[in-house]
Design goal:
heterodimer; A: mainly beta; 7-stranded mixed beta sheet; globular; B: 116 residues; 6-stranded mixed beta sheet; 4-stranded antiparallel beta sheet; 0% helix
Chain lengths: 114, 116
């Protein structure tokens, strides 16, 4: 059973460009979460999605960031007009649908903004 | 106030020794879950162990055990018989409530270095 997959693993963008990060959850998992990790910090929650629905985006910056989890295909975290402060590791996690289910993380995407 | 506190920025241990990584938490919700994750230098986040707030016994997974002291609100990770491959960053995390899809709250982490 494949784990959570994320791509790309590393992404370099210049200021003002767009970044698209992809996440495929573990097979059978219907919950997807995105977290951001700044250097020397723990992970911070951004958004929680189920298929075709954003359930909780309380951790998402109000501008330039968006997320989706379409009926078919991976979840996408999109950052428009990137700035240097967006440089971070972005992790996707997935879980099944029970309350106590563990979130399993993908390998992360390291975004560097030049 | 921080929800998850890891007071040890770095810990050092010799191979084959046991080590305890501290974690205290703060919540008023009677139902919660506590997790430990390992982040090696390669960067991925690896789930290690889980403890539910209503679990009567401390969780164990191989060489990992969780010393859960509910009254003190602590959930320390104990690694027995340390190995060189245990060198990594370790994060304590909490899920408040018992709803599926609740976000995890992470501590700042503890760096563990295992020497031979």
């Amino acid at each position: 059973n494949a784990g959570v997959m994320q791509n790309p693993r590393h992404l370099v963008r210049r200021r003002g460009q767009e970044a698209r990060l992809r996440c495929s959850p573990m097979k059978g998992h219907s919950h997807v979460y995105w977290y951001r990790q700044l250097p020397e910090e723990g992970l911070k929650f951004m958004v929680y999605l189920q298929k075709e629905n954003i359930i909780d985006e309380s951790g998402m910056p109000k501008e330039r960031f968006s997320a989706e989890f379409p009926k078919e295909g991976p979840s996408i975290l999109r950052i428009q007009q990137v700035v240097r402060g967006d440089s971070a590791a972005y992790f996707c996690a997935s879980s099944w649908d029970r309350a106590t289910d563990t979130q399993y993380f993908g390998p992360g995407t390291r975004l560097t903004v030049l | 106030a921080q929800k998850i506190t890891q007071t040890q920025p770095g810990m050092f241990v010799q191979e084959k020794e046991a080590v305890t990584l501290d974690c205290t938490y703060d919540t008023s919700d009677p139902s919660y879950g506590l997790f430990w994750y390992k982040q090696p230098s390669s960067g991925e986040m690896i789930f290690l162990i889980y403890q539910g707030s209503y679990d009567q016994q401390n969780a164990t997974e191989g060489r990992y055990s969780l010393n859960f002291q509910k009254a003190r609100k602590s959930a320390n990770l104990v690694i027995s018989a340390s190995q060189l491959g245990d060198s990594a960053m370790y994060f304590c995390a909490m899920r408040e409530g018992n709803q599926a899809g609740t976000a995890l709250i992470f501590g700042k982490g503890t760096t563990l270095s295992v020497s031979s």
